[in-house]
Design a protein that fits this description.
Jelly Rolls, 197 residues, 2 helices, alpha+beta, 6-stranded antiparallel beta sheet, single chain
Amino acid sequence: MKKILILLLLPIFSFGQVNTFPWTNDFESYVALQDDPNDDGNWGVMQGPTSSFATGPSGDHTTGSGVYYYVESSAPNYPNQTFIAYTPTFDVSATPGKVLSFWYHMYGAAMGDLEVAVIDGNGYTVIDSIIGDQGDLWHLAYYPINSVDSFKIAFKATTGTLYTSDICIDDIMVSDHLHLFMDVWILFLQITIQQLL
């Protein structure tokens, strides 16, 4: 048990820490997250549609023509293959009370699931599991983070039974509640203006 806990906590302490917020990654600079070396494969950066029919987005969330992060589910990446990626470690000892937000796209008849977890001094804690086909659009996810010292986020994608299970994320942000509220409010205004035009 002690060995398992050490392995779970190892990613927290093995890499540099972030203590300036908000922290964002929109993948436009092709900066990937940290891949788990012990899973079934790697996440990758992508621009434009994925290579498979009837799965994946037509473009990224940020601009529609930019870059996103995804799991390609074509053979040999199905069925039930697991792909894990980690954010950097966040030091919130001086500024606790953070929020994780990101956009996800999970479109496909054989869609698998996306597990989101916090890794901190308490171990590995699942905060959400998004399961099955979510339609051909980007969705916003956001979660309060209760960690008061250091933490990192794990994105664990598991492909479905066939190739139509590409799983994508974009525009990851770790911030305080007020910053997230302002971003969501700006997004609401942008959508409203587009609908009026």
